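--- STAGE predict ---
source: upstream dedup step, 1 unique chain passed
mode: sequence only
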Amino acid sequence: MQEKLLPAILFITIFFSDGIFYSSTIIVQEVLLSNLCDNETVSCDIGHYINIYGSLSVGCVFLSSIPAGLLINSIGSFRTLSLAVLVTAISYLITVFSENYILSIVIYGGLCGIGTGSIFYTCLIIISEIYSSNVGMMTSIVVTGSSIGSVIFPSLVSLILGYVEYRVILLVFTGVTLCCMILCCLLKTKTVPDVPPAPDQGVEMEVLSDSRSTVKINIQVEKPVWKYITVLTLSNTLLFGGFSITYAYLYKTVISNGTSPAMAGVVISLIGAISIPGRLLYGYASDLKIIPSIRLYQFSVIISAIAMILLPVLKFTFYTQVIFSLVFGFGSSGFLTLTTMYVIELLGVGYCNKAMAIINVGRSIGAVFGPILAILLQMYTNVNIVFYVTGGLYLTASIVSYITACIRNET
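--- STAGE serialize ---
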C-alpha cells in the first residue's frame, strides 16, 4: 500500500514546497515594499535586496543536501523529510510575525531554501530506496510536481495579493505545509543496506559445467567511485554556473527586445510548462535501459547549450522567444531530472546519498560563480557574449561528463 501512495504523497509535497519557493520572490518583494516604501526617508529601490535574497535562497537550496544527507544517515529518509517540511513551515511562520525586513529576508531565504532543498533532495533518495525498478519513471512523476508548482503558484500568488496582504498568504502556506508534514509522518521507513551492493560486492554468474551441474563464480568488480563522483561534480558545477546565468538574464533580455512584461511572463512560464512532459519522457527513456542515463543527461545538456547559443538570434520577436523557451525547457528538464538515475547506474544505490550531496555542493558553487562571471563579461563586452559563454559552459559540462566512459573503460 505504501509503495502505491508514496509517489502521490511525494508529488504533493514537492508541488507545494517548490511552488511556494518559486513564488517567494513575489512575497519578499511585498515584504520589502510594505517595510520600505511606507517610509518617505528611505528609497523604494529594492532591486539589490531582491538579488541578495535570490543568491541566499538558491545557495541554501543546493547546500541543503549536506545536512539532509547527514540526517538521512542518522535518522532515516522519512524522518528527514518530515523535519525538512517542518523547517519550511517555520520559515513561513517567522516571516509572518517578523517586523524586521532584513530578518525576514534572512529567515525566509535561509530557512525556506534549506527546507525546500532538503525536501526535494530527500524525495529523490526515498525513490531510490523504495523502488528497485522504474526508478526513472517514479522520479519523473514526483519531480513533475516541481514543474507544475512553478507554473501555477507565481501567477496564483500575484493574483491573490490584489485582495489580501502577504501575511495571510504565508499563513495559508504554513497550514498547507504542515498538512504535507502529517502525510509524510504516515510513511514508514524502509531499511537500506549500509554496504553498497554494486561497487563493493561481486557479480555472481552461473556457469553450466560438463557434468550439467551449475557452478557459481563470484567476480569481484572494483568501481572507481571517487573518480565518478569528481567528474560528475565538476560537470554539474559548470552546468549550474550556466543555468544560474540563464535565469538571471533571460527575463530582462526578453523585455528589452519589445516584449511586454505580461508576455515575457508567458515566455518564462513556457519553460516550466514544457518541462512537465519533458521530465516524464526522460524518466521513461531512462527506465527502458536502451540508452544509459548519463548519455540522456549529455543529450539534454547539449540541447540546452544549442538554445543558449542561438538566443542572441532568437531574442528579437515573441515567437522566436517562444521557440527558445520550448527548446531550452525540454533540454533543461533532462539534466534536472536524471541526476538520481545516472548516479545509481554508475555507482549503485548505496552511494546515491553521498554522491548527490557532493554533486549539489558543486551546483551551489556553480550558482555562485556563474552570475559573477556574467557580470564581469558584461562589464567589458555585451550580453550576447554572456549567452555564448553560457552555452559554452553547458557544452563543457557535457564534454566533462564523457570522462565517465573513459573511467569505465579503465575498469
